[in-house]
């Protein structure tokens, strides 16, 4: 936990529904709890996006600055989903916040990637045999909203 964790300070009902995590659980935390628990899978699919997000969240940006990321995330149930996340800087009383909206990208999940696993061998096997192709041009319906506060520690 650090001052740069950007804890969630508001969660919409759509976020609860999409992720399966309650507002009570999510508020005050960094959204890293959505990342795959298997480090090999998380790094294989999310490493570059995580680097971009970290830079975006830790370097204060002007109002309206945005970033879009596609992440492999896990619901409370362990079911994996492709999360299209759009984050934008907004200022309230001259304090920076990041407004995030997200949606599940409806694509077929490759075999073995559908569920969370803590088994390291299984994770590595999934990573080595999986190639993901995301179709372009599908309409986007944003489902969840989360607001992150900069300069506050997360728990």
List the helices and strands and how they pair.
Layout (H helix, E strand, L loop, with lengths): L7 E4 L1 H7 L3 H4 L12 H20 L7 E9 L5 E13 L2 E11 L14 H10 L14 E6 L6
Antiparallel strand pairs: 1-5, 2-3, 3-4, 4-5
Describe the 3D structure:
With 155 residues, the chain is an alpha+beta fold. Helices cover 26% and strands 28% of the residues. It has helices at 13-19, 23-26, 39-58, 120-129, and strands spanning 8-11, 66-74, 80-92, 95-105, 144-149. A five-stranded antiparallel beta sheet has the order 1-5-4-3-2. A hairpin with a 2-residue loop joins strand 3 (80-92) and strand 4 (95-105). The radius of gyration is 16 Å and the shape is globular.
Can you describe this structure in just a few lines?
It contains 4 helices and 5 strands; from the N terminus they run βαααβββαβ. It has helices at residues 13-19, 23-26, 39-58, 120-129, and strands spanning 8-11, 66-74, 80-92, 95-105, 144-149.
- Overall structural class, as computed from helix and strand content, comes to alpha+beta
Helix percentage range: 25-40%
Instruction: Output mean pLDDT.
Output: 80
Order of helices and strands: EHHHEEEHE
Q: Total number of β-strand segments?
A: 5
Strand order of the largest sheet: 1-5-4-3-2
Could you give the distance between the termini?
Answer: 7 Å
Low-confidence regions: 131-135
The largest β sheet comes out as: 5 strands, antiparallel
> What overall form do the CA principal axes indicate?
globular
Task: Classify the beta-strand content into a percent band.
Answer: 25-35%
Radius of gyration: 16 Å
Number of helices: 4
